[in-house]
Protein backbone atom coordinates (compact mmCIF):
# COMPACT_ATOMS: atom_id res chain seq x y z
CA UNK A 1 0.00 0.00 0.00
CA UNK A 2 1.35 3.39 -0.98
CA UNK A 3 0.95 6.14 1.61
CA UNK A 4 0.09 9.67 0.54
CA UNK A 5 2.98 10.93 2.71
CA UNK A 6 5.38 9.58 0.09
CA UNK A 7 4.12 12.08 -2.47
CA UNK A 8 5.54 14.99 -0.46
CA UNK A 9 9.04 15.85 -1.62
CA UNK A 10 11.88 18.09 -0.57
CA UNK A 11 11.72 21.43 -2.34
CA UNK A 12 13.51 24.75 -2.23
CA UNK A 13 10.74 25.95 0.06
CA UNK A 14 11.02 23.29 2.76
CA UNK A 15 14.55 21.88 2.63
CA UNK A 16 17.69 24.03 2.66
CA UNK A 17 21.28 23.31 3.57
CA UNK A 18 22.02 23.86 7.24
CA UNK A 19 24.96 26.23 7.59
CA UNK A 20 26.09 28.79 10.19
CA UNK A 21 26.31 31.23 7.28
CA UNK A 22 22.54 31.61 7.68
CA UNK A 23 23.19 33.29 11.04
CA UNK A 24 24.74 36.24 9.20
CA UNK A 25 21.37 37.18 7.70
CA UNK A 26 19.86 37.13 11.18
CA UNK A 27 22.74 39.18 12.55
CA UNK A 28 22.37 41.76 9.80
CA UNK A 29 18.60 42.12 10.17
CA UNK A 30 18.02 41.63 13.89
CA UNK A 31 21.27 42.56 15.58
CA UNK A 32 22.57 45.15 13.09
CA UNK A 33 23.24 48.13 15.38
CA UNK A 34 24.43 45.99 18.31
CA UNK A 35 28.14 45.68 19.07
CA UNK A 36 29.63 42.54 17.53
CA UNK A 37 33.31 42.89 18.44
CA UNK A 38 35.38 44.77 20.99
CA UNK A 39 39.15 44.75 20.68
CA UNK A 40 41.09 47.48 22.44
CA UNK A 41 39.76 50.77 21.06
CA UNK A 42 38.01 49.01 18.15
CA UNK A 43 34.27 48.41 18.35
CA UNK A 44 32.17 47.31 15.40
CA UNK A 45 28.46 46.67 15.00
CA UNK A 46 27.01 43.50 13.53
CA UNK A 47 26.07 45.46 10.40
CA UNK A 48 29.67 46.56 9.92
CA UNK A 49 31.01 43.09 10.74
CA UNK A 50 28.75 41.35 8.23
CA UNK A 51 29.69 43.91 5.56
CA UNK A 52 33.39 43.26 6.25
CA UNK A 53 32.84 39.49 6.04
CA UNK A 54 31.15 39.81 2.64
CA UNK A 55 33.91 42.09 1.35
CA UNK A 56 36.72 39.84 2.59
CA UNK A 57 35.00 36.88 0.92
CA UNK A 58 34.86 38.88 -2.33
CA UNK A 59 38.54 39.72 -1.97
CA UNK A 60 39.44 36.06 -1.47
CA UNK A 61 37.58 35.10 -4.62
CA UNK A 62 39.48 37.89 -6.38
CA UNK A 63 42.72 36.20 -5.33
CA UNK A 64 41.60 33.08 -7.19
CA UNK A 65 40.12 31.08 -4.32
CA UNK A 66 37.69 28.38 -5.45
CA UNK A 67 35.23 25.98 -3.84
CA UNK A 68 36.99 23.29 -1.81
CA UNK A 69 40.33 25.13 -1.60
CA UNK A 70 42.00 25.17 1.82
CA UNK A 71 42.81 28.52 3.45
CA UNK A 72 45.21 28.18 6.38
CA UNK A 73 45.21 30.95 8.98
CA UNK A 74 47.97 31.64 11.51
CA UNK A 75 46.61 34.21 13.94
CA UNK A 76 45.80 34.79 17.61
CA UNK A 77 42.20 35.41 18.67
CA UNK A 78 41.46 38.80 17.08
CA UNK A 79 38.47 40.13 15.08
CA UNK A 80 40.00 39.19 11.73
CA UNK A 81 40.14 35.49 12.64
CA UNK A 82 36.55 35.72 13.86
CA UNK A 83 35.47 37.23 10.53
CA UNK A 84 37.29 34.51 8.60
CA UNK A 85 35.09 31.87 10.24
CA UNK A 86 32.35 33.23 7.98
CA UNK A 87 34.26 34.80 5.08
CA UNK A 88 36.17 31.66 4.05
CA UNK A 89 33.14 29.32 3.97
CA UNK A 90 31.11 32.03 2.19
CA UNK A 91 33.47 31.55 -0.76
CA UNK A 92 32.97 27.78 -0.65
CA UNK A 93 36.54 27.31 0.58
CA UNK A 94 37.60 25.46 3.73
CA UNK A 95 39.04 27.16 6.83
CA UNK A 96 42.14 25.60 8.40
CA UNK A 97 43.02 27.42 11.62
CA UNK A 98 46.66 26.69 12.51
CA UNK A 99 47.77 26.21 16.08
CA UNK A 100 50.02 29.21 16.72
CA UNK A 101 52.05 27.28 19.33
CA UNK A 102 53.18 24.52 16.99
CA UNK A 103 56.79 24.17 15.90
CA UNK A 104 57.61 25.15 12.28
CA UNK A 105 58.11 21.55 11.13
CA UNK A 106 54.57 20.53 12.10
CA UNK A 107 53.07 23.66 10.55
CA UNK A 108 54.92 22.79 7.33
CA UNK A 109 53.51 19.25 7.48
CA UNK A 110 49.95 20.60 7.87
CA UNK A 111 50.31 23.15 5.04
CA UNK A 112 51.45 20.34 2.77
CA UNK A 113 48.95 17.71 3.90
CA UNK A 114 46.02 20.16 3.82
CA UNK A 115 46.79 21.16 0.21
CA UNK A 116 46.76 24.79 1.36
CA UNK A 117 46.20 27.32 -1.45
CA UNK A 118 46.51 30.51 0.63
CA UNK A 119 47.90 31.42 4.06
CA UNK A 120 46.52 34.35 6.05
CA UNK A 121 49.03 35.29 8.75
CA UNK A 122 49.21 37.83 11.56
CA UNK A 123 52.45 39.74 11.05
CA UNK A 124 53.68 38.86 14.54
CA UNK A 125 53.71 35.23 13.36
CA UNK A 126 55.48 35.86 10.04
CA UNK A 127 58.81 34.55 11.44
CA UNK A 128 57.09 31.27 12.39
CA UNK A 129 55.53 30.99 8.94
CA UNK A 130 58.85 31.77 7.27
CA UNK A 131 60.49 28.91 9.18
CA UNK A 132 57.60 26.63 8.18
CA UNK A 133 58.10 27.58 4.52
CA UNK A 134 61.80 26.68 4.92
CA UNK A 135 60.81 23.21 6.14
CA UNK A 136 58.22 22.97 3.37
CA UNK A 137 60.80 23.80 0.73
CA UNK A 138 58.47 26.26 -1.00
CA UNK A 139 56.34 29.29 -0.28
CA UNK A 140 52.61 29.79 -0.66
CA UNK A 141 50.55 32.90 -1.43
CA UNK A 142 50.15 35.01 1.72
CA UNK A 143 47.75 37.66 3.01
CA UNK A 144 48.97 39.59 6.07
CA UNK A 145 46.98 40.86 9.04
CA UNK A 146 48.60 44.12 10.14
CA UNK A 147 47.38 44.40 13.75
CA UNK A 148 48.45 47.79 15.18
CA UNK A 149 48.41 46.21 18.67
CA UNK A 150 51.41 44.03 17.81
CA UNK A 151 54.79 44.40 16.19
CA UNK A 152 55.58 42.22 13.24
CA UNK A 153 57.37 41.56 10.00
CA UNK A 154 56.13 41.48 6.44
CA UNK A 155 56.61 39.14 3.50
CA UNK A 156 55.29 41.84 1.19
CA UNK A 157 51.95 40.21 0.57
CA UNK A 158 48.59 42.00 0.33
CA UNK A 159 47.02 43.03 3.63
CA UNK A 160 43.78 41.80 5.11
CA UNK A 161 42.42 45.35 5.18
CA UNK A 162 42.95 45.58 1.42
CA UNK A 163 40.47 42.70 1.07
CA UNK A 164 37.89 44.71 3.02
CA UNK A 165 37.62 47.18 0.13
CA UNK A 166 36.65 44.40 -2.33
CA UNK A 167 33.25 43.94 -3.93
CA UNK A 168 31.12 41.95 -1.46
CA UNK A 169 29.86 38.43 -2.02
CA UNK A 170 26.12 37.88 -1.46
CA UNK A 171 25.07 35.88 1.61
CA UNK A 172 24.29 32.47 0.12
CA UNK A 173 24.15 29.01 1.64
CA UNK A 174 26.16 26.07 0.29
CA UNK A 175 24.44 23.83 -2.24
CA UNK A 176 25.17 20.83 -0.01
CA UNK A 177 25.29 20.98 3.79
CA UNK A 178 27.83 18.12 3.68
CA UNK A 179 30.35 20.48 2.05
CA UNK A 180 33.46 20.95 4.16
CA UNK A 181 33.50 24.14 6.25
CA UNK A 182 36.67 23.59 8.27
CA UNK A 183 39.75 21.38 8.51
CA UNK A 184 41.19 21.02 12.02
CA UNK A 185 44.30 19.06 12.88
CA UNK A 186 44.53 16.99 16.04
CA UNK A 187 47.18 17.97 18.57
CA UNK A 188 49.47 15.13 17.52
CA UNK A 189 50.77 14.02 20.94
CA UNK A 190 51.70 10.74 19.27
CA UNK A 191 52.57 10.57 15.59
CA UNK A 192 51.56 13.03 12.91
CA UNK A 193 48.41 15.10 13.49
CA UNK A 194 45.34 14.00 11.55
CA UNK A 195 43.14 16.37 9.55
CA UNK A 196 39.56 16.38 10.85
CA UNK A 197 36.92 17.55 8.36
CA UNK A 198 33.86 19.48 9.58
CA UNK A 199 30.80 20.07 7.39
CA UNK A 200 28.32 22.97 7.38
CA UNK A 201 25.53 20.85 8.87
CA UNK A 202 27.59 19.90 11.91
CA UNK A 203 28.78 23.47 12.50
CA UNK A 204 25.19 24.73 12.40
CA UNK A 205 23.93 22.06 14.79
CA UNK A 206 26.86 22.61 17.16
CA UNK A 207 25.86 26.27 17.51
CA UNK A 208 22.18 25.43 18.03
CA UNK A 209 22.96 22.70 20.55
CA UNK A 210 25.39 24.85 22.51
CA UNK A 211 22.87 27.66 22.92
CA UNK A 212 20.43 25.19 24.44
CA UNK A 213 22.92 23.27 26.57
CA UNK A 214 24.53 26.42 27.99
CA UNK A 215 21.07 27.99 28.41
CA UNK A 216 22.37 31.13 26.76
CA UNK A 217 20.14 34.19 26.48
CA UNK A 218 20.26 36.55 23.50
CA UNK A 219 23.03 39.16 23.43
CA UNK A 220 25.67 37.54 25.66
CA UNK A 221 29.00 39.30 26.16
CA UNK A 222 31.44 36.56 25.28
CA UNK A 223 35.16 36.72 26.03
CA UNK A 224 37.23 34.97 23.35
CA UNK A 225 39.62 32.82 25.40
CA UNK A 226 39.33 29.39 23.76
CA UNK A 227 41.80 29.50 20.85
CA UNK A 228 39.93 29.57 17.56
CA UNK A 229 42.52 27.09 16.28
CA UNK A 230 41.01 24.58 18.73
CA UNK A 231 37.82 23.07 17.24
CA UNK A 232 37.06 26.55 15.79
CA UNK A 233 36.81 27.93 19.30
CA UNK A 234 34.39 25.07 20.15
CA UNK A 235 32.04 26.48 17.50
CA UNK A 236 31.39 29.62 19.56
CA UNK A 237 32.15 32.16 16.78
CA UNK A 238 29.19 30.83 14.78
CA UNK A 239 27.04 30.73 17.92
CA UNK A 240 27.66 34.43 18.61
CA UNK A 241 26.23 35.45 15.23
CA UNK A 242 23.06 33.51 15.99
CA UNK A 243 22.58 35.12 19.41
CA UNK A 244 23.79 38.62 18.51
CA UNK A 245 26.56 38.34 21.07
CA UNK A 246 29.35 40.81 21.67
CA UNK A 247 32.75 39.12 21.33
CA UNK A 248 35.57 40.65 23.39
CA UNK A 249 39.18 39.97 22.35
CA UNK A 250 42.39 40.32 24.38
CA UNK A 251 44.80 38.88 21.78
CA UNK A 252 46.71 36.98 24.48
CA UNK A 253 44.96 34.91 27.21
CA UNK A 254 46.90 36.42 30.13
CA UNK A 255 45.14 36.28 33.50
CA UNK A 256 45.31 40.04 34.08
CA UNK A 257 43.87 40.83 30.64
CA UNK A 258 41.06 38.30 31.07
CA UNK A 259 40.03 39.63 34.49
CA UNK A 260 40.25 43.26 33.31
CA UNK A 261 38.10 42.49 30.27
CA UNK A 262 35.47 40.76 32.42
CA UNK A 263 35.13 43.84 34.62
CA UNK A 264 35.45 46.48 31.90
CA UNK A 265 33.01 45.00 29.41
CA UNK A 266 30.57 43.11 31.63
CA UNK A 267 31.51 39.70 30.26
CA UNK A 268 28.80 37.10 30.85
CA UNK A 269 30.30 33.96 29.25
CA UNK A 270 33.60 32.43 28.25
CA UNK A 271 35.20 29.05 27.66
CA UNK A 272 38.61 28.01 28.94
CA UNK A 273 40.76 24.97 29.60
CA UNK A 274 41.32 23.98 33.26
CA UNK A 275 44.88 25.32 33.07
CA UNK A 276 43.46 28.81 32.36
CA UNK A 277 41.05 28.51 35.30
CA UNK A 278 43.99 27.61 37.53
CA UNK A 279 45.82 30.69 36.25
CA UNK A 280 42.82 32.88 37.11
CA UNK A 281 42.50 31.36 40.59
CA UNK A 282 46.13 32.18 41.33
CA UNK A 283 45.79 35.76 40.05
CA UNK A 284 42.55 36.59 41.85
CA UNK A 285 42.47 34.74 45.15
CA UNK A 286 41.85 37.78 47.37
CA UNK A 287 39.29 39.69 45.27
CA UNK A 288 35.53 39.82 45.85
CA UNK A 289 33.57 37.22 43.85
CA UNK A 290 31.91 38.22 40.59
CA UNK A 291 28.23 39.04 40.96
CA UNK A 292 26.28 38.03 38.97
CA UNK A 293 28.29 34.87 38.37
CA UNK A 294 30.20 34.49 35.09
CA UNK A 295 29.10 31.44 33.07
CA UNK A 296 32.19 29.40 32.18
CA UNK A 297 32.54 26.27 30.06
CA UNK A 298 35.69 24.22 30.67
CA UNK A 299 37.14 21.33 28.69
CA UNK A 300 40.42 19.89 27.46
CA UNK A 301 41.22 17.68 30.44
CA UNK A 302 39.25 16.60 33.51
CA UNK A 303 39.54 19.64 35.83
CA UNK A 304 40.87 18.94 39.33
CA UNK A 305 37.95 19.30 41.81
CA UNK A 306 40.12 21.67 43.86
CA UNK A 307 40.19 24.14 40.96
CA UNK A 308 36.41 23.87 40.48
CA UNK A 309 35.89 24.59 44.17
CA UNK A 310 38.10 27.69 44.04
CA UNK A 311 36.60 29.08 40.81
CA UNK A 312 33.10 28.68 42.26
CA UNK A 313 34.20 30.80 45.24
CA UNK A 314 35.41 33.46 42.74
CA UNK A 315 31.95 33.78 41.22
CA UNK A 316 32.51 31.55 38.20
CA UNK A 317 29.63 29.21 37.39
CA UNK A 318 31.75 26.50 35.75
CA UNK A 319 30.23 23.72 33.69
CA UNK A 320 32.55 20.99 32.52
CA UNK A 321 32.02 19.71 28.99
CA UNK A 322 33.71 16.92 27.09
CA UNK A 323 34.52 16.38 23.47
CA UNK A 324 37.22 15.87 20.90
CA UNK A 325 38.46 17.55 17.75
CA UNK A 326 36.62 14.80 15.87
CA UNK A 327 33.28 15.85 17.44
CA UNK A 328 33.48 19.61 16.69
CA UNK A 329 34.38 20.07 20.36
CA UNK A 330 31.96 19.56 23.25
CA UNK A 331 29.34 16.82 23.02
CA UNK A 332 28.58 16.10 26.69
CA UNK A 333 27.97 18.40 29.64
CA UNK A 334 27.98 18.13 33.40
CA UNK A 335 24.62 19.82 33.84
CA UNK A 336 24.01 21.02 37.41
CA UNK A 337 21.36 19.05 39.30
CA UNK A 338 19.17 20.73 41.95
CA UNK A 339 19.88 18.05 44.54
CA UNK A 340 23.54 19.10 44.48
CA UNK A 341 22.66 22.45 46.07
CA UNK A 342 22.72 21.09 49.63
CA UNK A 343 26.13 19.43 49.31
CA UNK A 344 29.41 20.85 50.58
CA UNK A 345 31.56 22.80 48.10
CA UNK A 346 34.03 19.91 47.97
CA UNK A 347 31.25 17.40 47.21
CA UNK A 348 29.82 19.71 44.55
CA UNK A 349 33.24 20.05 42.93
CA UNK A 350 33.64 16.25 42.81
CA UNK A 351 30.34 15.99 40.93
CA UNK A 352 31.22 18.90 38.66
CA UNK A 353 34.33 16.99 37.58
CA UNK A 354 32.13 14.46 35.76
CA UNK A 355 31.76 14.68 31.99
CA UNK A 356 27.99 14.32 32.25
CA UNK A 357 25.33 13.68 29.65
CA UNK A 358 25.01 14.23 25.91
CA UNK A 359 24.38 17.70 24.45
CA UNK A 360 20.92 18.01 22.87
CA UNK A 361 22.30 17.92 19.29
CA UNK A 362 24.16 14.63 19.90
CA UNK A 363 22.28 11.37 19.45
CA UNK A 364 24.28 9.15 21.78
CA UNK A 365 27.29 9.32 24.07
CA UNK A 366 27.69 5.78 25.36
CA UNK A 367 30.28 3.84 27.34
CA UNK A 368 30.82 0.44 25.76
CA UNK A 369 32.80 -2.66 26.65
CA UNK A 370 34.86 -3.14 23.48
CA UNK A 371 35.18 -6.89 24.09
CA UNK A 372 31.47 -7.69 24.44
CA UNK A 373 30.01 -4.69 22.62
CA UNK A 374 27.62 -4.14 25.54
CA UNK A 375 26.90 -0.92 27.40
CA UNK A 376 28.62 -0.85 30.79
CA UNK A 377 26.31 -0.88 33.84
CA UNK A 378 25.56 2.39 35.64
CA UNK A 379 27.60 1.42 38.68
CA UNK A 380 30.34 4.08 38.63
CA UNK A 381 33.07 1.43 38.56
CA UNK A 382 32.84 -0.71 35.40
CA UNK A 383 35.01 0.88 32.74
CA UNK A 384 34.46 0.98 29.00
CA UNK A 385 35.28 3.24 26.07
CA UNK A 386 33.32 6.39 25.27
CA UNK A 387 31.62 6.03 21.89
CA UNK A 388 29.67 8.76 20.12
CA UNK A 389 27.27 9.11 17.24
CA UNK A 390 25.42 12.10 15.93
CA UNK A 391 25.50 14.91 13.39
CA UNK A 392 28.41 16.67 15.09
CA UNK A 393 30.83 13.84 14.43
CA UNK A 394 33.42 14.65 11.76
CA UNK A 395 32.95 13.72 8.13
CA UNK A 396 36.25 11.85 8.46
CA UNK A 397 40.01 12.27 8.41
CA UNK A 398 41.38 14.15 5.40
CA UNK A 399 43.19 11.81 3.00
CA UNK A 400 43.21 8.94 5.52
CA UNK A 401 40.57 6.34 4.68
CA UNK A 402 42.07 3.66 6.95
CA UNK A 403 42.06 5.87 10.05
CA UNK A 404 38.51 7.02 9.24
CA UNK A 405 37.28 3.42 8.93
CA UNK A 406 38.93 2.44 12.22
CA UNK A 407 37.47 5.45 14.04
CA UNK A 408 33.96 4.64 12.76
CA UNK A 409 33.99 0.86 13.40
CA UNK A 410 30.53 -0.64 14.11
CA UNK A 411 28.71 2.62 13.49
CA UNK A 412 30.27 4.58 16.37
CA UNK A 413 33.06 7.09 16.71
CA UNK A 414 35.49 5.56 19.22
CA UNK A 415 37.09 8.20 21.44
CA UNK A 416 39.93 6.22 23.02
CA UNK A 417 38.78 7.55 26.42
CA UNK A 418 38.03 5.11 29.23
CA UNK A 419 35.05 6.01 31.40
CA UNK A 420 32.42 4.78 33.83
CA UNK A 421 28.71 5.61 34.03
CA UNK A 422 27.13 6.69 37.31
CA UNK A 423 23.62 5.79 38.43
CA UNK A 424 22.36 9.21 37.24
CA UNK A 425 23.55 8.32 33.69
CA UNK A 426 26.44 10.81 33.90
CA UNK A 427 29.70 9.58 32.43
CA UNK A 428 33.07 10.20 34.02
CA UNK A 429 36.43 9.77 32.34
CA UNK A 430 38.83 7.53 34.20
CA UNK A 431 41.61 7.80 31.64
CA UNK A 432 42.75 7.72 28.11
CA UNK A 433 42.71 3.94 27.72
CA UNK A 434 46.48 3.85 27.35
CA UNK A 435 46.84 5.81 30.63
CA UNK A 436 45.05 3.29 32.85
CA UNK A 437 47.50 1.79 35.35
CA UNK A 438 46.89 -1.91 36.01
CA UNK A 439 48.52 -2.83 39.30
CA UNK A 440 48.16 -6.40 40.56
CA UNK A 441 45.02 -6.76 38.45
CA UNK A 442 43.48 -3.56 39.85
CA UNK A 443 42.72 -0.64 37.50
CA UNK A 444 44.03 2.68 38.80
CA UNK A 445 42.80 5.91 37.25
CA UNK A 446 45.67 8.35 36.80
CA UNK A 447 43.06 11.17 36.72
CA UNK A 448 41.88 10.20 40.22
CA UNK A 449 45.42 10.23 41.64
CA UNK A 450 46.21 13.53 39.90
CA UNK A 451 43.08 15.11 41.40
CA UNK A 452 44.40 14.32 44.89
CA UNK A 453 47.86 15.70 44.11
CA UNK A 454 46.31 18.96 42.86
CA UNK A 455 44.75 19.42 46.31
CA UNK A 456 48.23 19.76 47.84
CA UNK A 457 49.23 23.40 48.23
CA UNK A 458 52.69 22.80 46.76
CA UNK A 459 51.55 21.25 43.48
CA UNK A 460 51.41 23.44 40.36
CA UNK A 461 50.89 20.57 37.90
CA UNK A 462 50.81 16.80 38.19
CA UNK A 463 50.80 13.80 35.86
CA UNK A 464 50.61 10.16 36.92
CA UNK A 465 51.76 7.31 34.68
CA UNK A 466 52.58 3.62 35.01
CA UNK A 467 55.99 2.55 36.28
CA UNK A 468 57.12 -1.09 35.92
CA UNK A 469 57.12 -3.14 39.12
CA UNK A 470 58.50 -6.65 39.65
CA UNK A 471 55.61 -7.83 41.87
CA UNK A 472 52.57 -5.80 40.77
CA UNK A 473 53.36 -5.45 37.07
CA UNK A 474 53.05 -1.67 37.21
CA UNK A 475 52.43 0.96 39.87
CA UNK A 476 51.68 4.72 39.80
CA UNK A 477 54.55 7.14 39.33
CA UNK A 478 53.85 10.86 39.81
CA UNK A 479 55.64 13.66 37.95
CA UNK A 480 55.07 16.92 39.81
CA UNK A 481 55.77 20.55 38.96
CA UNK A 482 56.02 22.58 42.16
CA UNK A 483 54.84 26.10 42.94
CA UNK A 484 57.52 28.66 43.72
CA UNK A 485 58.59 28.65 47.35
CA UNK A 486 57.51 25.07 48.17
CA UNK A 487 59.90 22.17 48.79
CA UNK A 488 57.94 19.06 49.81
CA UNK A 489 59.69 15.70 49.79
CA UNK A 490 58.67 12.61 47.88
CA UNK A 491 57.56 11.10 51.19
CA UNK A 492 55.38 14.15 51.95
CA UNK A 493 53.38 13.78 48.74
CA UNK A 494 53.08 9.99 48.95
CA UNK A 495 51.78 10.32 52.52
CA UNK A 496 49.31 13.00 51.38
CA UNK A 497 47.99 10.67 48.67
CA UNK A 498 47.73 7.71 51.05
CA UNK A 499 45.58 9.85 53.35
CA UNK A 500 43.06 10.38 50.54
CA UNK A 501 43.34 7.20 48.44
CA UNK A 502 43.46 3.45 48.81
CA UNK A 503 47.06 2.47 49.46
CA UNK A 504 47.54 0.69 46.14
CA UNK A 505 46.52 3.85 44.26
CA UNK A 506 49.11 6.10 45.92
CA UNK A 507 52.24 6.87 43.85
CA UNK A 508 55.23 4.68 44.62
CA UNK A 509 57.60 7.31 43.24
CA UNK A 510 57.45 11.10 42.82
CA UNK A 511 59.66 12.93 40.32
CA UNK A 512 59.92 16.72 40.65
CA UNK A 513 60.38 18.40 37.28
CA UNK A 514 58.86 20.82 34.76
CA UNK A 515 56.23 18.83 32.88
CA UNK A 516 56.38 18.56 29.08
CA UNK A 517 53.28 20.06 27.47
CA UNK A 518 51.76 20.19 24.01
CA UNK A 519 51.15 23.46 22.20
CA UNK A 520 47.60 23.49 23.65
CA UNK A 521 48.82 23.03 27.23
CA UNK A 522 48.09 19.32 27.57
CA UNK A 523 50.69 17.36 29.49
CA UNK A 524 52.58 14.99 27.17
CA UNK A 525 52.20 11.77 29.12
CA UNK A 526 53.86 9.67 26.44
CA UNK A 527 57.17 11.37 27.27
CA UNK A 528 56.64 10.70 30.96
CA UNK A 529 55.69 7.08 30.31
CA UNK A 530 58.99 6.64 28.46
CA UNK A 531 60.89 8.09 31.43
CA UNK A 532 58.97 5.95 33.91
CA UNK A 533 59.89 2.74 32.05
CA UNK A 534 63.47 3.21 33.26
CA UNK A 535 62.56 3.82 36.92
CA UNK A 536 61.83 0.28 38.07
TrEMBL record:
**Biological process per Gene Ontology, one example term:** fatty acid metabolic process
Entries under InterPro entries matching the protein: AMP-bd_C, AMP-bd_C_sf, AMP-binding_CS, AMP-dep_synth/lig_dom, ANL_N_sf
Q: Which Pfam families match?
A: AMP-binding, AMP-binding_C
Q: Which UniProt keywords apply?
A: Fatty acid metabolism, Ligase, Lipid metabolism, Magnesium, Metal-binding
Which reactions is this enzyme annotated as catalysing?
Answer: 3-(methylsulfanyl)propanoate + ATP + CoA = 3-(methylsulfanyl)propanoyl-CoA + AMP + diphosphate
Asked whether the keyword DNA-binding is assigned, the reply is no
Q: Does the keyword Metal-binding apply?
A: yes
Q: Which GO terms describe its molecular function?
A: ligase activity; metal ion binding
Q: Where is the AMP-dependent synthetase/ligase domain?
A: 27-398
UniProt cofactor(s): Mg(2+)
EC number annotated for this UniProt entry: 6.2.1.44
| Span of domain AMP-binding enzyme C-terminal | 448-522
How it assembles, according to the record, is: Homodimer.
Q: Provide the family line.
A: Belongs to the ATP-dependent AMP-binding enzyme family.
What is the designated name of this protein? 3-methylmercaptopropionyl-CoA ligase
